[in-house]
Design goal:
It is a single chain. By secondary structure, the protein is α+β, with helices and mostly antiparallel strands. The protein contains 6 helices and 4 strands. The strands form 2 sheets. Strands 1-2 form a two-stranded antiparallel ribbon. A two-stranded antiparallel ribbon has the order 3-4. Helix 1 packs parallel to helix 3. The radius of gyration is 26 Å and the shape is rod-shaped.
Length: 172
Amino acid sequence: MTEGQRGARTSVQNIILGSCLLLASVAALALALFPIYIIRPFREQKPAALQHALWVTLHDKPILFGLFLLIAICALFVWRRAGWVPRLLLAPAMTIALLAAAAAWVNPYEQMMFHPFGEPRYVTIQQAGIDAKDMVIAVTLGGESRAYPIREMGYHHVVNDRLHQLPIVVTY
């Protein structure tokens, strides 16, 4: 085998390895996004799919961090001896693997859409301006009452509160 053939063979191997690393990083990203796709609000969630999504949510952080390290180490090893074509595959592979590892720490539904009311502000019924047609969730405990308007609960879905000296969670 001539030096040119050996170089061409190494180049093809680097392209194949870069492609494999890119596919592995896309698979890692799919693993990170799987629970986000399955546990979507306002749609039916099948028990088996939900069970798988919750398992992934519980275990994906170390798995995705390990995959990122493996992909990054392999990519950097190949990078030193690769030409520009494999590098076009290796750079996105490392970036996507890093995004996948970071995505494991983000829950867009809790952090962006449905963050709870941490400390609601209360007013008297006269100040509230609640229309007679407004729906509310009412809670009474030990003679103390609260009403949570559905129009507010529809956005936040969760209120952490204290009623009659006890912590309560109201959800809709």
